[in-house]
Write a structure and sequence with these properties.
Distance between the termini: 22 Å
Number of strands: 5
Order of helices and strands: HHEHHEHEEEHHHH
Strand content: 5-15%
Radius of gyration: 20 Å
Helix content: 40-55%
Largest sheet: 5 strands, mixed
Shape: globular
Strand order of the largest sheet: 1-5-4-3-2
């Protein structure tokens, strides 16, 4: 949504393109505002009203922004790590609870997707009235290197702790997890390095999931389980940082393409 909403606001994507890109993630998507005041300002249904659709959301965002491109930011917060977000407010609380969000910095709004029924994803629009600090710039090459280096360090730490154990079928588990992910669609002009980093982040996330599971009959002691969690935590952070850097680079490149047209 971060990449495609940016492309839409820049005038390089149509509403149908955005819908097609979102469809693999849920069969249906609807939209509401988080509160009545946001609903009034944005011209969208409030939390007690009948939800509307993604095209109406896109039109509302363009109207709010007066047709100008907006700085759009992917946020992937966890407690204790809220980089790129306002420190307080309803949007921040919801983003931390869900673990993700889309922040439209220039126009003071944010989006949070939440599964509400089988096959239905609801996008809630929040007013972001709090001050948002400039996002830290991380070169995509640095994020990619840090992710690869953290994979190596985490594997070495797990081995030295004696908690890195082979489990029959683990490779198949990882492959199955990757195949189960929705197939992402991207706008024309999506930078190749950003795509590579996003794919690598998906692969590492699948490895993390497999590494966090005990093999039958081999449950770890509480101390060993804690040591494993501590070893994997920096890798989880590296995945989030890499994804944010890749999306930020994609938004930057696609905005540049739009500016040259």
């Amino acid at each position: 949504m971060t990449v495609w909403a940016s492309a839409w606001l820049a005038g390089t994507a149509a509403p149908d393109d955005v819908l097609d890109a979102l469809e693999p993630w849920a069969a249906a998507h609807d939209v509401v505002a988080a509160d009545d005041e946001t609903a009034r300002l944005a011209g969208l249904p409030g939390p007690a009203d009948m939800p509307t659709s993604i095209p109406f959301l896109l039109a509302a965002l363009r109207k709010i922004g007066d047709g100008m491109p907006s700085s759009i930011r992917l946020v992937l917060p966890v407690p204790g790590d809220v980089r790129g977000m306002p420190s307080t407010g309803a949007f921040s609380r919801a983003a931390i609870e869900q673990g993700h969000g889309v922040l439209l910095v220039d126009i003071g709004y944010g989006l949070i997707p939440t599964p509400v029924a089988d096959g239905l994803l609801r996008w809630t629009l929040y007013s972001v009235l709090e001050v948002v600090a400039p996002d830290e710039h991380l070169h995509l090459g640095e994020a990619e290197f840090a992710l690869r280096e953290q994979v190596r360090q985490s594997a070495s730490t797990l081995t030295s702790l004696g908690v890195a154990r082979h489990r029959p079928g683990v490779r198949q588990e990882i492959e199955n997890a990757l195949r189960a992910r929705p197939r992402s669609l991207w706008p024309d002009g999506m930078p190749a390095q950003a795509l590579r980093v996003l794919q690598h982040a998906d692969e590492v996330e699948a490895i993390l999931a497999a590494a966090s599971v005990d093999h039958p009959g081999g449950a770890l002691s509480a101390s060993a389980a804690q040591a494993r969690a501590d070893a994997l935590r920096p890798l989880t952070t590296a995945v989030r940082v890499a994804r944010r850097a890749a999306v930020a680079e994609a938004v930057r490149v696609l905005a540049g393409i739009a500016g040259r047209r």
